[in-house]
């Protein structure tokens, strides 16, 4: 039996749930974090059904609250849990012109997608560096690589995650630490993202890949200590396009994918 523990935020559905499955398959204790306790219970039921005997810990926390990262860290510490793998998957988007979208929604988005991610990374990475052991997976997006009209704030948070992760990766190498950090940049994926982001009527929503496939590639990259995972050919094409095309062209291309069809 594996005696290691993985903490996954956004673990009740989508890529986060599929990543939790990957850890459970390899006999990690999995700590599932999401806002709604009933959804966490269903995720735990499915994991127990598939992987009997796996230890599943449920921690319902809302990462849009500024004090949540500290409270979550305290909760794992009080339970005596050493977090060997941290997955920062929690995140959401919103679709529409910036002048039309709700400010509080976007402030909450920045809190979840960027601020809480940094806060949790700070808390758990310090412990990992002290032990000289651990892995962190930061979930970005192909939106990390280009400006995205109609999802301006979401794409900006994911660009932040990319820049932050790459800088800390370099710092860990300079420190000669055995701790690794991997950034996963999925393409549009078949999750609840488009419903929550009010983006169901977009071209991007009609061309999605499997959350399980994305999670499997991201998990393998994490276990290999890779710097980055670009799951599927589409994600790789998008990344290389960002290297070749000016931002103005990329923004135009993203607008065609994210602007509601027929509007």
TrEMBL record:
Gene3D superfamilies: NAD(P)-binding Rossmann-like Domain. Keywords: Oxidoreductase. PROSITE patterns: ADH_SHORT. It comes from the Bacteria. Belongs to the short-chain dehydrogenases/reductases (SDR) family. This is SDR family oxidoreductase. It comes from Hymenobacter tibetensis.
